[in-house]
Write a structure and sequence with these properties.
By secondary structure, the chain is mainly alpha-helical. About 40% of the residues lie in helices and about 5% in strands. The protein contains eight helices and three strands, in the order ααβββαααααα.
Length: about 190
C-alpha cells in the first residue's frame, strides 16, 4: 500500500508521510493531524506528543523512512505558512490538517492500492492494528506494544491478541481423553 502512493505532487508527499506515520508508528489520525513542529526532535530522532484520545504522553523513534518522508513534504510539498502544524490542507486557504483529512487521504490510498477491503475495516486505524499484529508476530512483549501505541494499560492492547493466531496456538492445551464410564449414569444409562 505504501508503494502505491504517488509522491509527484505536494499532496502525494503529504499523504505518503501520513501513511508512514500510521503504518510504521501506529499514530491515530487525530495525532497525525495534530502533529506540530515542536513534536519532532530532529537531533534525537524522536517524536514526542500527547495522544489526543488518551491524553497520554508518548515518545516514539523517528524512523529514517518516516523522517525522510516528512522532510520531503516540508521541503518540496508543503505550502508556505506560519502555522506550526506539520500537515496542511492541499488547497488555499491553507489550514492545519484535520482528522477527517487524514482519514480521507489514507482511505483513498488503501482503496487505490488494490487491497481488497470488502467487509473489512480500513483506514488509519487498520494500519495501527496491522502494526500491532506485526509486533505480536515478531515476539514483541505486550507492555512494549502497549507503550508504543500509547495505551493507558496493557488490557487495552489485549484486544490485539485475538489476531495473533500463531501465538494463540502455542497456548493451546491438549484435550485429555474422557473414559467412557464418564458418560454413564447410575444404572448404566448413557447420557450426553
Amino acid at each position: 500500500m505504501e508503494n502505491s502512493v504517488s509522491r509527484s505532487s505536494g499532496v502525494g508527499k503529504r499523504n505518503y508521510a501520513m501513511v508512514l506515520l500510521a503504518s510504521r508508528l501506529g499514530l491515530r489520525a487525530s495525532d497525525i493531524a495534530g502533529l506540530q513542529f515542536s513534536n519532532i526532535d530532529w537531533d534525537r530522532d524522536t517524536i514526542t506528543l500527547v495522544m489526543q484520545k488518551t491524553g497520554k504522553a508518548i515518545e516514539l523513534p523517528l524512523l529514517a523512512d518516516v523522517g525522510n518522508a516528512i522532510i520531503d513534504y516540508l521541503q518540496n510539498g508543503r505550502s508556505r505558512s506560519a502555522l506550526q502544524s506539520v500537515f496542511l490542507s492541499g488547497r488555499a486557504p491553507y489550514v492545519a490538517a484535520t482528522k477527517s483529512m487524514v482519514c480521507s487521504a489514507i482511505n483513498a490510498r488503501i482503496c487505490k492500492s488494490g487491497i481488497d477491503v470488502t467487509a473489512k475495516h480500513h483506514g488509519p486505524h487498520s494500519l495501527r492494528h496491522s502494526l500491532a499484529s506485526a509486533m505480536l508476530e515478531n515476539g514483541t512483549m505486550m507492555p512494549v506494544i502497549s507503550e508504543s501505541l500509547g495505551h493507558r494499560s496493557t488490557e487495552t492492547t489485549l484486544t490485539y491478541l485475538k489476531i495473533d493466531i500463531m501465538s494463540l496456538r502455542k497456548c493451546a492445551l491438549p484435550v485429555p481423553s474422557v473414559p467412557e464410564n464418564f458418560y454413564m449414569q447410575r444404572g448404566g444409562a448413557f447420557y450426553g
